[in-house]
Design goal:
Layout lengths: L31 E6 L5 E4 L5 E4 L13 E4 L5 E3 L21 E6 L5 E5 L18 E5 L6 E6 L10 E7 L2 E6 L4 E6 L5 E4 L13 E2 L2 E2 L1 E2 L2 E2 L4 E6 L5 E6 L4 E5 H4 L6 H6 L2 E4 L7 E3 L5 E5 L4 E5 L5 E6 L10 E2 L4 E6 L20 E7 L9
Antiparallel strand pairs: 1-28, 2-3, 3-4, 4-5, 6-7, 7-8, 8-9, 10-11, 11-12, 12-13, 14-15, 16-17, 18-19, 19-20, 20-21, 22-23, 23-24, 24-25, 26-27, 27-28
């Protein structure tokens, strides 16, 4: 049964009004080509010392020859990370020491490269195979390339789960489940995994998704991507999160991580933050400003902590801007992954991705994000 949160506080931004009183959008010339690929890249992360990593999802680039996770050298050439063996499931002797379906990568506050591997998971279709590879998190030491943490997510997932993305808050890892609506909390001290906001309105995709002016269709029906984007506020007090269709909600991390609260009590403490459009990716800067992609109008919105939005940039090249990143120099990285053009979202099953797939940058001088 869906639990609908009681909206005890709705800020002005919840109306979804983009202010016309803000600075004019950036010109297209501000958008720089940083990386190009003949395979679909869906995420980018940059270490504090400038090392650049990208991931290739199974729904776009992972089904083609090449690594699932790669480090790019100074010339932009990809090299399997941490090595070829981790990127070769077909010949893996230990299935827990190879990537299956990488969906997200992030440089964590500990300096490790964290990889979200969704395992043998489906989205919006039949249940995941009971004997399939479970979802897992793997954190790699950037110096040695060795795994430091491997967390199998059996306790926090269901047969319909698709583990999507990850953020950090102290000793808690917070993950979104885009397949079976909910958030997954992992306590790094105890190893306990707990699902919260299961099938709540705030984690469930309940409205049509549009990209490039078209209804997003999958398997002959409107696509549903449940809990997807999430960000932690700079002071660690709030979690912003949403299904891919929007809107964006917020809840205090203290409430989220309080096991004494029932599901109903927690849901009542969730409030609408902003009526976001269909969203591919988000990022938050060190001042608490959120950057949200509008995949229907091919633009990025900047939303202040007070819920006031303005258009940062609009450009026809920003086709499904996905997992963005702010590096230590304040540069914004934007993968334009064209998810809506991939075969999974075409009635005839034929990809309409226009190659190369590109990661762009904006030199904004932003205060780097706090990743906790």
């Amino acid at each position: 049964m869906l639990r609908k949160p009681v909206l005890t506080c709705i800020v002005l931004g919840a109306l979804g009004i983009v202010s016309s009183g803000q600075a004019a959008p950036l010109p297209s010339s501000a958008l720089h080509v940083a990386v190009t690929s003949q395979r679909v890249m869906n995420a980018v992360t940059v270490s504090d010392d400038g090392r650049l990593f990208v991931s290739f999802p199974y729904w776009g680039g992972g089904s083609e020859p090449g690594p699932a996770v790669a480090e790019l050298d100074a010339k932009g050439a990809p090299h399997a990370w941490p090595d070829a063996a981790w990127n070769d499931r077909a010949h893996a002797q230990d299935i827990m020491r190879c990537f299956v379906r990488v969906n997200a990568i992030r440089t964590g506050p500990d300096g490790y490269l964290w990889v979200v591997d969704s395992g043998d998971a489906n989205v919006g279709g039949k249940p995941n195979p009971p004997d399939g590879v479970p979802a897992k998190l793997v954190a790699f030491d950037l110096t040695s390339g060795r795994p430091v943490h491997t967390i199998v997510l059996k306790q926090g997932t269901t047969p319909y789960s698709y583990v999507d993305d990850l953020r950090f808050h102290g000793d808690t890892l917070i993950l979104t489940d885009a397949g079976d609506p909910g958030l997954i909390l992992v306590d790094m001290k105890t190893g306990r995994q707990r699902r919260v906001l299961q099938h709540a309105t705030s984690t469930t995709d309940e409205r049509p998704m549009y990209a490039e002016g078209r209804l997003l269709i999958s398997n002959g029906k409107p696509a549903r991507i449940h809990a997807d984007q999430l960000e932690v506020s700079p002071d660690g007090s709030l979690l912003y999160f949403q299904p891919s269709s929007g809107p964006m909600y917020k809840v205090s991390t203290a409430d989220l991580e309080n096991p004494a609260l029932s599901e109903d009590e927690l849901s009542r403490r969730v409030v609408v933050f902003y009526n976001t459009p269909t969203t591919g990716g988000t990022v938050i800067d060190g001042r608490g400003n959120l950057y949200v992609s509008d995949v229907n109008k091919l633009r990025l919105l900047k939303i202040t902590p007070q819920g006031k939005a303005s258009v940062l940039i609009a450009d026809q090249r920003l086709v499904w801007a996905d997992a963005m990143w702010i590096d230590s120099t304040g540069k914004l990285w934007i993968p334009a992954v064209q998810l809506n053009r991939t075969a999974s979202f075409q009635a005839d099953g034929v990809s309409r991705v226009r190659k190369p797939v590109t990661i762009y940058t904006l030199d904004l001088g932003l205060e780097p994000q706090h990743r906790f």
